[in-house]
Specification:
Elements: H1 8-17, E1 23-29, E2 35-38, E3 41-44, H2 57-67, H3 76-79, E4 83-86, E5 89-100, E6 103-116, H4 129-133, E7 140-144, H5 150-161, E8 167-171, E9 179-180, E10 183-184, E11 192-195, H6 199-210, E12 214-217, H7 223-234, E13 238-244, H8 249-252, E14 266-271, E15 278-284, H9 285-292
Parallel strand pairs: 7-13, 7-14, 8-11, 8-12, 12-13
Antiparallel strand pairs: 1-2, 1-6, 2-3, 4-5, 5-6, 9-10, 14-15
């Protein structure tokens, strides 16, 4: 699953902390213990002696080298945006930025990595399938706090949609389809996929060229992305997107995302408790407005 990124003593420490299939994230910080996040919680990776596995500079450099096929320069365009992607695994990077005016040129002295391991969970959308897809696809917003399972839910909904509708995934940060050289690593059914491109650019370029009936996109962050979702929905193309938040009030009380309330027809609220991907609410637009008032 780690695709050669984790080897040697680090691999042993991770294996001792959790079964590989349960690992959702590795957090490497130079000079600090390696943290392993799983579907059940957060753990510290330890050596056979019981001492914490403390991350060294060379551990970070090895992961960077393997992830970039030993050419970090070749993925600099991703690094300046704060991440790299390798065959389904997304790696967040942090270090010392190099910029010219407002333009980021590169990042050096990278000392912090967040290795996110995607998981396909077939059936994760069973509880929401009728509300989102029954009687035709609904414009849908998936809401959860961090580690709530938004991306996993989006991936499964996209796969299901693609069985009957022309479905396009806009995967700005390579998380939903995890495409490698344009080909999805994860099962997204018969979806078309655009990766590594800003949502706004992808919206403009693909609606005319690819003729999608449904667009599935990763987490909305900026106001202009919310505006674009509203425009697309009003044009007749269905949209399924995600948003960081605790519940539907995150939408209706937000000066940035409140406008989504005018086009979204179904709301799916997830929680990381008691387990990642727990569905806590499935609401129609009317129910969501009433709940948020």
């Amino acid at each position: 699953m780690f695709d050669g990124l984790v080897t040697g003593m680090m691999a042993g420490a991770v294996a001792a902390a959790a079964d590989e299939g349960a690992v959702t994230e590795l957090r490497l910080r130079v000079g600090r213990p390696l943290v392993v996040l799983t579907t059940d919680g957060r753990r510290v990776a330890r050596l056979p002696s019981g001492a914490p596995f403390v991350v060294k500079r060379e551990d970070v450099e090895r992961v960077l080298a393997v992830a970039s096929d030993y050419s970090v320069y070749a993925v600099n365009d991703q690094i300046v945006r704060g991440y790299m992607a390798r065959r389904g695994i997304r790696i967040g990077v942090a270090g010392e930025g190099v910029s010219e005016g407002e333009k980021a040129l590169t990042m050096k002295h990278i000392a912090c990595l967040t290795v996110r391991i995607p998981h396909e969970v077939k059936g994760v959308a069973d509880k929401v399938r009728g509300a989102v897809l029954g009687g035709g696809v609904k414009n849908t917003l998936v809401i959860s706090p961090p580690y709530g399972g938004k991306t996993t839910m989006l991936r499964e909904l996209a796969r299901l949609c693609s069985h009957e509708r022309n479905t396009l995934i806009i995967d700005e940060r390579f998380e939903i389809a995890a495409a490698e050289r344009g080909v999805p690593v994860l099962d997204v059914g018969d979806c078309d996929v655009v990766s590594g491109v800003s949502k706004l650019t992808a919206y403009e370029n693909t609606i005319r060229a690819m003729n999608p009936e449904v667009i599935v996109t990763d987490e909305l962050f900026r106001e202009n992305e919310a505006d674009a979702v509203c425009d697309i929905a009003r044009s007749g193309v269905k949209v399924i997107a995600s948003l960081h938040g605790e519940g539907v009030e995150s939408v209706f009380r937000s000066p940035v995302f409140g406008k989504l309330g005018g086009v979204i027809e179904a709301y799916v609220v997830l929680s990381p408790h008691p387990r990642v991907g727990t569905v806590t609410a499935v609401l129609t637009a009317e129910e969501a407005r009433g709940s948020a008032s």
